[in-house]
């Protein structure tokens, strides 16, 4: 037996209370890890978003489009902007599943020759890609979306147009997977030419327009410089542009949720306070019940610092146990739920798993808070008067 | 019945423990109330924009003002549908706005965010009597003047009296007024002249959505049938309240779900806290309970008394929680509206229903957390009175 | 009295009176304040106890016997007067030094045993050694030896709840001797025990006194227990009679 051992053994004194406290800490920690994982999943989009891919859109509004001719001016082989390697363009289509209208996913009409070169992080098997390029009404969907609606290659699907009214018929020609965490695996990608030709009669003013142009920059080129060069190029045109890297765009998008993120941040702090209250209460109660015993230890020659250390050690041990139990709860629970979220809410959370640093932080916080919660009881225990303590016979 | 005084004094004696436990419960109640208040704030902000006797018409398939578009020439057809109210001059009360979204620089320098810009006619402004200019003047029709909603004024760069907004190169819109609109979502928008906004966004000859005032809400079905009858036009009619209800649905569900999940997690933690405290109370008062039993108090009485003490404890926390939550009424919350991808500013809305249900939630936590300890107390044998 | 002199005079055959004094109180006073009310628990108390003596301290409740015991054991400090135990003037020691001195010089036996419930018998006995630099294996060996002395070699790994009152008190005594203190102070060691267990405990104390030459100071209410001591002192209203 050692001094540390002695302090840890005290946890066994009131098993029910120890179990409840560990459980309380574990559940608080589960909630904490859940919130932090959610926050992390939000920012994953931004952190893992490509820095070498730029998006060029209308300067005034994302709802406005650009003339398709802008693409030619940016294309790596024909264009004149230094630093641009390749370019592609796309339109937001705004399609919906005809029955399950509430389930959001991105539908985009893309320039099929270049799209998957620029979006090299969306991997399509070569034979499927070739088949898709051959079929004007073909579509390539994300693996998560295919799973969500039970689609497989060869299926005919109909989408409801919101921006471009009507029923739109497609055939699934390929399924892409993601090679980067930030990639949304619920997108629906089809030929821009199909869209453009279909609306020639009904919406002639909408033809030959593209929503935004994506460019990949040459290795070594600075994204910000290239973006500036692109915007400068169109400065004197009728329609000016706004170009930024995907990462900057994601950050800006996240900024719109700033208040929610702040609120979640605050709430994750609140759970830590609750955890500390539970811990502090338990430790204070067990110290109070043990006043007499501490008196005995003092009589035997133990110093107040020993008593304080015992209390701290007990607190830390409970914190550690609770932390470990919390992680044991968190992993199956949150990662299991995360898989479901990735499959069903992939547009918002392409990646939803506990980041290792969150797990480590949680464990350390559990111990730190337990230590903090033990400070006052430890201090009070160390101020104990031997005679007084011995007189209080249990 | 054991007097309440007994419980109150016991709680007072164990001040620190009582306070720690109550605070835990209080924080849970606070989080729950805050989430509900936020949802309520969002719901009200959007529903304030709707009127019970108004109906909206948009293009079939679209579910928000951004994706809908209706040709100007078709507005007359909608206005002539049965049930539409007429003004003093006999003109039908039907207005169409052009709605677009623009990037605007946040005033705090943290990048850009989307805001809704709405092109309106003078009739369009008159159609919404709740709209009042609080600073400056109304933008003059046919000019490049705009006014900004009270909630976003000064949140964004240039969105202030005298400020400028570049919608087109070398043709900036001038901010001439700040308006309020009864706390509705209009207060998070920029309003300008219909033709100017339509021109700036290449939407000439179109409006996004048409709003009509009906003679009475009961006439909606007839109106809708008439408007939707012509399948070629592809119109969809909806009561305005329902439109806004739907608009807030996704975000509201998101916040409520998040809030409830978090509150449930948290409450388990706090209930365990209450349980620990009550077990402690029972253990400390073992001989005391023995005496009560020896004096003839029944097990049920003891059970009720301890359960009651636990409920008192959590209600105390609940009161702290809703007191703290009530102060959130001052806090403004800005969030992306999933419908338009643009910012909407709203406030925490403390209603008595929310506060009461959060408090009840706290009380229930006390019942659940105190139940097992109360059973242990009730099982105490009278003989315990004789032991140290 | 110098250490050399003590050594020179040492010897079991000599009569008790010739033994060097191990506890010396001079003009000892202890005053407690309960609010504004003054309570003189000990007054002008002089006491000399020779090394190797087994003394019982009796007196009615409130006579100050526990206070005197606490002062001698270095748990409490007198308000007035001098106290010298085992060659140290306790008044000159700091709190830390006093605690260290206590852990080396005094063995405590309590009325309520005061064993740590989560520790086994051998762990309880080992407790005072945790304060020393004795290595872990040696600590355990000494704790086992102490338990053997009190006759509990077959109860080493039992927890206090698994022991009878008499056994618990014997563990308490083992704890009091494990670090080989010069003095054992016992506050009502038989107060919680039945006659038979009390007899066993007293016999054990006698043995420690005789075979191991421990000075024992015991506060008791029990005349039968007091009889077993070699010297009986009576305390009344803070004064020795």
Residue fraction in strands of chain C: 25-35%
The total strand number of chain A stands at 13
Ends distance of chain A: 25 Å
CATH architecture of chain C: 3-Layer(aba) Sandwich
Structural class of chain A: alpha+beta
SS strand fraction of chain A: 15-25%
The residue ranges of chain A in which pLDDT falls below 50 over 5 or more consecutive positions are: none
Largest interface: chains, residues each: A-B, 56 and 60 residues
Calculate the mean pLDDT score of chain C and round it: 87
C-alpha-based Rg of chain A, rounded: 30 Å
Report on the structure:
The complex is a heterotrimer of chains A (394), B (388) and C (241). Chain A is 53% helix and 17% strand. By secondary structure, chain A is of the alpha+beta class. Chain A has two domains: 3-47 and 257-391, no CATH class; 60-239, no CATH class. The longest helix of chain A is centred in the C-terminal third of the chain and has 41 residues, at 304-344. The model of chain A has no long low-confidence stretch (mean pLDDT 88). In chain B, the strands form three sheets. In chain B, strands 1, 3, 4, 5, 6, 7, 8, 9, 11 and 12 form a ten-stranded mixed β-sheet that branches. Chain B has a two-stranded antiparallel sheet with strand order 2-10. The two termini of chain B are 26 Å apart. Chain B has two domains: 4-47 and 247-386, no CATH class; 54-215, no CATH class. Chain C has helices at 3-9, 65-72, 95-105, 121-126, 136-149, 165-177, 195-211, 223-228, and strands at residues 21-34, 37-50, 54-58, 80-85, 88-89, 106-109, 183-187, 215-219, 231-236, 239-240. Classes of the chains: A alpha+beta (394), B alpha+beta (388), C alpha/beta (241). At the A-B interface, helix 2, helix 9 and helix 10 of A face helix 2, strand 3, strand 4, strand 7 and helix 7 of B.
């Amino acid at each position: 037996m050692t001094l540390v051992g002695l302090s840890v053994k005290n946890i066994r004194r009131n098993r029910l209370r120890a179990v409840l406290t560990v459980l309380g800490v574990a559940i608080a920690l589960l909630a904490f890890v859940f919130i932090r994982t959610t926050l992390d999943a939000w920012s994953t989009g931004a952190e893992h978003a490509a820095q070498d891919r730029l998006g060029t859109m209308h300067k005034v509004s994302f709802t406005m489009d650009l003339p398709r001719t802008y693409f030619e001016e940016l294309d790596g082989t024909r264009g004149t902007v230094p630093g641009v390697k390749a370019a592609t363009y796309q339109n937001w289509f705004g399609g919906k599943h005809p029955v399950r209208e509430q389930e959001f996913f991105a539908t985009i009409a893309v320039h099929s020759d270049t799209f998957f070169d620029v979006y090299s992080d969306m991997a399509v098997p070569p034979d499927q890609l070739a088949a898709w390029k051959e079929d004007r009404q073909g579509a390539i969907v994300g693996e998560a979306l295919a799973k969500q609606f039970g689609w497989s290659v060869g299926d005919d699907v109909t989408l409801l147009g919101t921006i471009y009214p009507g029923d739109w018929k497609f055939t699934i020609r390929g399924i892409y997977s993601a090679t980067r965490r930030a990639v949304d695996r619920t997108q629906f990608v089809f030929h821009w030419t199909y869209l453009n030709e279909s609306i020639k009669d009904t919406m002639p003013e909408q033809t030959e327009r593209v929503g935004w142009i994506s460019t990949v920059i040459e290795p070594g080129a600075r994204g910000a410089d290239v973006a500036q060069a692109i915007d400068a190029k169109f400065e004197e045109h009728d329609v000016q542009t706004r170009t930024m890297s995907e990462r900057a765009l994601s950050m800006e998008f996240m900024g719109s949720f700033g208040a929610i993120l702040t609120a979640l941040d605050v709430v994750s702090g609140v759970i830590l306070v609750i955890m500390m209250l539970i811990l502090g209460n338990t430790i204070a109660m067990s110290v109070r019940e043990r006043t007499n015993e501490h008196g005995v230890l003092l009589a035997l020659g133990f110093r107040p610092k020993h008593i304080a250390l015992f209390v701290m050690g007990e607190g830390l041990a409970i914190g550690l146990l609770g932390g470990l139990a919390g992680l044991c709860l968190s992993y199956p629970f949150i990662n299991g739920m995360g898989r479901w979220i990735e499959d069903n809410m992939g547009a918002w959370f392409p990646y939803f798993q506990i980041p290792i640093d969150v797990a480590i932080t949680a464990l350390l916080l559990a111990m730190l808070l337990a230590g903090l919660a033990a400070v006052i009881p430890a201090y009070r225990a160390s101020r104990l008067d031997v005679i007084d303590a011995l007189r209080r016979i249990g | 019945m054991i007097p309440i005084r007994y419980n109150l004094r016991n709680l007072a004696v164990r001040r620190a423990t009582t306070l720690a436990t109550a605070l835990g419960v209080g924080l849970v109640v606070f989080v729950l109330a805050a989430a509900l208040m936020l949802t309520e704030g969002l719901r009200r902000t959007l529903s304030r924009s709707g009127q019970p006797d108004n109906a909206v018409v948009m293009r079939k398939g679209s579910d928000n003002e951004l994706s809908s578009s209706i040709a100007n020439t078709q507005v007359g057809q909608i206005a002539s549908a049965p049930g539409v109210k007429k003004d003093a001059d006999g003109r039908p009360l039907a207005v169409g706005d052009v709605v677009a979204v623009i990037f605007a620089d946040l005033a705090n320098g943290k990048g850009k965010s989307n805001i809704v810009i709405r092109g309106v006619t003078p009739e369009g402004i008159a159609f919404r009597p709740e709209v009042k200019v609080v600073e400056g003047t109304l933008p003059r029709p046919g000019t490049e003047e705009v006014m900004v909603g009270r909630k976003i004024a000064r949140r964004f760069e240039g969105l202030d009296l005298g400020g400028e907004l570049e919608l087109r190169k070398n043709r900036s819109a001038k901010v001439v007024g700040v308006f309020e609109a009864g706390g509705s979502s209009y207060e998070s928008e920029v309003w300008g002249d219909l033709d100017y906004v339509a021109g700036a966004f290449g939407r000439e000859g179109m409006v996004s959505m048409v709003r009509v005032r009906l003679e009475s809400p009961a006439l909606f079905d007839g109106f809708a049938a008439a408007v939707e009858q012509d399948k070629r036009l592809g119109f969809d009619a909806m009561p305005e309240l329902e439109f806004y209800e739907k608009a807030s649905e996704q975000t509201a569900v998101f916040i409520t779900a998040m809030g409830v999940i978090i509150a449930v997690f948290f409450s388990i933690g706090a209930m365990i806290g209450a349980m620990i405290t009550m077990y402690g109370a029972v253990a400390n008062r073992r001989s005391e309970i023995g005496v009560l039993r020896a004096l003839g108090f029944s097990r049920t009485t003891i059970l009720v008394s301890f359960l009651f003490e636990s409920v008192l404890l959590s209600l105390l926390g609940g009161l702290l929680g809703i007191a703290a939550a009530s102060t959130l009424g001052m806090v403004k919350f800005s969030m992306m509206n999933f419908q338009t991808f643009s910012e909407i500013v709203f406030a925490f809305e403390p209603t008595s229903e929310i506060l009461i249900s959060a408090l009840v939630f706290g009380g229930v936590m006390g019942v659940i957390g105190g139940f097992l300890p109360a059973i242990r107390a009730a099982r105490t044998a009278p003989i315990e009175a004789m032991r140290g | 009295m110098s250490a050399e002199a003590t050594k020179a005079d040492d010897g079991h055959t000599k009569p008790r009176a010739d033994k060097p004094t191990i506890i010396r109180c001079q003009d000892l006073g202890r005053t407690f304040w309960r609010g504004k009310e003054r309570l003189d628990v000990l007054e002008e108390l002089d006491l000399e106890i020779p090394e190797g003596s087994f003394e019982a301290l009796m007196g009615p409740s409130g006579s100050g016997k526990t206070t005197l015991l606490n002062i001698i054991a270095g748990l409490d400090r007198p308000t007035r007067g001098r106290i010298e135990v085992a060659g140290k003037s306790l008044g000159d020691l700091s709190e830390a030094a006093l605690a260290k001195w206590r852990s080396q010089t005094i063995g405590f036996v309590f009325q309520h045993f005061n064993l740590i419930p989560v520790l086994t018998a051998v762990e309880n006995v080992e407790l005072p050694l945790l304060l020393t630099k004795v290595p872990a294996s040696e600590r355990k060996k000494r704790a086992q030896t102490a338990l053997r002395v009190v006759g509990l070699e077959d109860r080493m790994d039992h927890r206090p709840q698994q022991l009878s009152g008499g056994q618990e008190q014997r563990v308490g005594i083992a704890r009091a001797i494990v670090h080989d203190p010069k003095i054992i102070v016992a506050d009502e060691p038989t107060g919680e025990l039945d006659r038979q267990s009390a007899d066993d405990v007293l016999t054990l104390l006698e043995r420690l006194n005789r075979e191991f030459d421990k000075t024992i100071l015991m506060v008791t209410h029990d005349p039968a227990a007091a009889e077993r001591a070699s010297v009986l002192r009576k305390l009344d209203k803070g004064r020795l009679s």
